[in-house]
Design brief:
This protein has helices at 3-14, 19-26, 30-43, 68-75, 86-100. The chain is an all-alpha fold.
Length: 102
């Protein structure tokens, strides 16, 4: 297979095309397509989970993130601040008045 065909096959698979559709369009055997795509999954480069940058291959241990910035974006919980409404504030003041005995 030529490099252009390989790239086309992978692009079509990413786009969601089925093996039969690709086979009919390019004139390649379905089983050859399946083998090629399966092998490409194992030869694929590793990418950062957050930003999709290519990770270095020579790392001592497997990496998931390219930097601490990306790691912290995924692993730290997001804090959502909300401003209480006027009705909620009035309910709080009413409850405080009940419990204080006024």
């Amino acid at each position: 297979m030529a490099e252009k065909e390989k790239r086309t096959i992978l692009d079509m698979r990413v786009a969601g095309k089925q093996y039969k559709e690709i086979s009919a369009q390019l004139g390649i055997d379905v089983s050859a397509l399946k083998v090629f795509v399966h092998r490409q999954k194992h030869n694929d480069v590793k990418r950062c989970v957050q930003c999709k940058k290519v990770l270095p291959k020579d790392a001592r241990k497997p990496q998931r993130f390219c930097s601490d910035k990306c790691r912290k974006r995924v692993t730290q919980p997001r804090i959502v601040y909300s401003i209480p409404s006027q009705a909620a504030l009035s309910m709080v003041s009413e409850l405080a008045a009940l419990f204080s005995g006024k």
